[in-house]
Amino acid sequence: MTKQLRSIGPLSCAKVAAIIYGVIGLIIGAFVSLLSLLGVFGGGFGSTGGEPSAPIFDLLFGVGAFILLPVVYACMGAIGGVIMAGAYNLVARIVGGIELEIE
């Protein structure tokens, strides 16, 4: 049986995209945080001009990345979800929706 997906709810799409992108941001934030902490304990990999940077800034950047990146990614995912759902709905009105085969 073939059905057509004629429209997508922009807010439901935004919620799903926000969660997916928030998880991606959490994973990336964990890696950035880990690399930043390795820089702190490794003797200042983030140094500029031959002088080591203050370890507290590296530590705060690492923790900040772990907290801030998931929030930023989730917000951008929600905005992108609304835009893409709206674009899909507009195009689906003109050319028809995506055909789905459901059993």
Structure commentary:
The chain has 103 residues and is mostly helical. It has one domain. Helix content is 71%, strand content 8%. The chain contains 2 helices and 2 strands. It has a two-stranded antiparallel ribbon. Helix 1 (10-41) runs antiparallel to helix 2 (55-95). The mean pLDDT is 83.
Summarize the SSE layout with pairings:
Layout: E1 2-5, H1 10-41, H2 55-95, E2 98-101
Antiparallel strand pairs: 1-2
Helix pairs in contact: 1-2
Strand order of the largest sheet: 1-2
Low-confidence stretches: none
Computed over alpha carbons, the radius of gyration is 21 Å
Largest sheet: 2 strands, antiparallel
What number is the mean pLDDT?
83
Secondary-structure-derived class: mainly alpha
How many β-strands, per DSSP?
Answer: 2
How many H/I helical runs?
2
Percentage of residues in DSSP E strands: 5-15%
| Gross geometry | elongated
Helix fraction, binned, reads over 70%
Secondary-structure element pattern, one letter each: EHHE
Please give the alpha-carbon distance between the first and last residues.
Answer: 6 Å
- Count of structural domains: 1
Give a brief outline of the structure.
The protein has 103 residues and is mainly α.
Quick tags:
mainly alpha, 2 strands, 103 residues, 2 helices
